[in-house]
# Entry
Amino acid sequence: MPIIQTPGTEEVHPDILLVNRARQGDVQAFEQLVKQYDRQVFRIAQHITQNREDAEDVVQDAFLKAYEKLEQFQGNSKFYTWLVRIAVNESLMRLRKRRTGRMVSIDEDVETEEGSMPRDLAEWRPDPEAQYGQSELAEILRKTIQGLPPGFRVVFVLRDVEGLSTEETAETLGLSVPAVKSRLLRARLQLRERLSRYFRKKDEDGVK
Amino acid sequence: MTCTEFLAELGEFLDANVSVGLRADLEEHLERCEHCVITLRTTRKTIEIYRNHEIYELPVSIRERLQAAILAKCKKGC
Ligand SMILES: [Zn+2]
# Structure
């Protein structure tokens, strides 16, 4: 397989090469993309749906939908970002199905001032996670992030956990860049506030 | 600069997305405000902790089952 390179531009992202091969019917190329991104898709789906079964279904449906729509993928955006957008939409659909009658939206702004002003100003322990076991820590982190409004949670997950840029996050969620920035900051501050309960220095620490 | 003004720029500061001038103002505020130092440090740590700990793991067996199901359908042309 020759390396496709447009003259005068930087190298083509390896994902694009895989996409091109998959388009020509090479299922193994698509398999590589699945193996590369299935865990991320699962995490995002789990964060949005808060339901394990749904998240597993989203992994399947998102990749199948991507495969079907591969022709429509425009090479000017990243495959990963494109895939995430499909996964976010699938996750929201599942969430709506489960919560019939209740509006589920990530684009409506959340009317809360909670967390915009830090209240807990205690210093944290130097290595705050170290005092908890692996599974205990995971439980704390899950419980804490689940308490965020969905519209904040998804912005934090895409931007800070999965590493999308602010612009990519905005594009994926159909939000403006300023809206992403404002939600991201509020999400970060709210998480910080809630984690402070677990990670703050205890009085006895100071004596040492 | 007040704490409220500092907080308004905290996101951009954490993402190293501020101009040289603004950066100097923010750093100057940090030099005399212990509260904002703590907020900055613990917020940065919050992001780091979430980034470094996988809280939703996909067990290998389920992962393999999903991969197999996806590829079987792809081979059939979906
Ligand atoms: Zn301050």
